[in-house]
């Protein structure tokens, strides 16, 4: 599984009318199921007078099923939440929640029409949704001799490693953020650069 993937950069809303029913699709970033449910509660309050507030979320990397949820919110079973979740699962976007608010306009759409309406709202919102890249980092402490610092900084640039802190006392000490997919290579290159004399202590962190 890639440690880099797109996530929503902001909350985004798409609205359309289908046979006099008004459908409002709102999508947002949801890194956890708790945050997804919090967002859903906010939308239910915002659109408290709506006929339905159907929702789905995928609080993890694209395509995963560990933290997902869905609700038809009173629509016929399987016509809203499930098709919405299917769209999210195959979108290539991770950590995302979608709420489709419906104001009934007097014309019944039928089960097939509802599935198309709810999935279409999410699809069209995703097409215009601004995204950004999420990178999983290994956060680490590195201590090494002064003589290696110049070469180290060249290496950090080439491997997209970020320096959070640096201190110079008896040795040079750095607090670093290393892209997870480059961690093994980074360890190997530090070992080679310092002939095994560096101290490198990792812990995992997300940004």
UniProtKB/TrEMBL annotation:
It comes from the Bacteria. Residues 145-197 form the UPF0029 domain. Residues 20-126 form the Impact N-terminal domain. GO terms for biological process: regulation of translational initiation. InterPro entries: EFG_III/V, Impact, Impact_N, Impact_N_sf, Impact_YigZ-like, Ribosomal_Su5_D2-typ_SF, UPF0029_Impact_C, UPF0029_Impact_CS. One of its GO terms (cellular component) is cytoplasm. Pfam families: DUF1949, Impact_N. Belongs to the IMPACT family. NCBIfam families: IMPACT_YIGZ (TIGR00257). This is YigZ family protein. It comes from Sulfidibacter corallicola.
